Amino acid sequence: MLPPPIAIRVATEWLSARARWQPLEIVFWLGAFASIYLLPESHLILTEIAWLGLFALSLDLILGYAGIISLGHAAFFGFGAYTAALLAKYEIINEPVLALVVSGLAAMALGFVTSFLVLRGSDLTRLMVTLGVALLLRELANRLGWLTGGADGLQGVTIKPVLGMFRFDMFGHTGYAYCLTVLFILFLIARRLVNSPFGLSLMSVKGNPLRSSAIGISVDARLIAIYTVAAGYAGIAGALLAQTTSFASLEVFSFDRSADLLLVLIIGGAGYLYGGLIGAIIFKFMQDYLSVLTPQYWPFWIGLVLVVIVLVGRERITSWTTPVRRIASHLNWRALAHRIAASSSERH
């Protein structure tokens, strides 16, 4: 067993190594920003992928890192969408970036209020509570037709140019660059968050809440915090949808949207941030291709692909790679510990 000072240094070195950018990450983001210039004809669908990826990232924060499963995450998405659309329609805030921030803060406030309900009970209870919140908000938006447009949606929304310079166009050029930039900034924040001691404590809570509480981790406080942050991310994703389409409807609160979000994470995988982004890319392009190939039966093929991924591909990949990853992680940890111990002995 290592002495406490060396153990602390080992942990610090390991956390620093864990937070370093990997070459594939750099390639991923360079490719994403290069697509602004290389794929101008695909900006409309890429815009959808960008806000869907951010939406999936928000769910991954609570599902992949805190173990909170939700069937009503669309509540925050829709709340952010309607907030941004109302701010623009009634010219309360004309600057899209500022309206985006306000929409995220509004969704965070809603997430904080509802988080106390989500903490109660088991996973099944959480599923029902989150779904109930989304259904309540959908019905509220339907009833307040004088404000939200009801079943017809909120129409007549005019989005001003971003920063007063970049006007939204029908081809999605400005919209894609705008959504991708917002996604990248929020991804950096999320990456810093999950690699911090707070993020590690979340994974501890997910693994064993009772043991985490026994060693002094405030379980409820951390779950409330990450749920609130994830709600803000979802609200900003919804606001991006409203700003790039100049429209908000009851569909943003629908169960289908929350279900699609879970499908995205199933495809990409949860618990490593890029799962939502990769899943959004695969899901949207697969949906776009299959809807053209078989307009009536494309959901069947998506369902079939998901069944194959879950029952065949994901299980086998996990069974093959888990022992290897465990051995590699153990060897890396031991090598790091010996290296630090050797350097410490040389100093003395």
Identify the CATH class: Mainly Alpha
Quantity of strands, as a count: 0
Helix content: over 70%
Cα Rg: 22 Å
Taken in chain order, the helices and strands follow as HHHHHHHHHHHHHH
Low-confidence stretches: 315-333
The tally of structural domains comes to 1
State the helix count.
Answer: 14
Judging from the principal axes of the Cα atoms, what is the shape?
globular
Structure classification: mainly alpha
CATH architecture: Orthogonal Bundle
| CATH fold category name | ABC transporter involved in vitamin B12 uptake, BtuC
How much β-strand is present in the residues? under 5%
* Average pLDDT over all residues: 83
Distance separating the two termini: 19 Å
Largest beta-sheet details: none
Any overview of this molecule?
The protein has helices at residues 4-19, 23-38, 43-63, 74-89, 96-118, 123-143, 145-148, 173-194, 197-207, 209-214, 219-245, 255-268, 274-293, 298-347. The chain has 348 residues and is mainly α. The protein is globular and about 60 Å long. The two termini are 19 Å apart.
Secondary structure layout plus pairing:
Layout: H1 4-19, H2 23-38, H3 43-63, H4 74-89, H5 96-118, H6 123-143, H7 145-148, H8 173-194, H9 197-207, H10 209-214, H11 219-245, H12 255-268, H13 274-293, H14 298-347
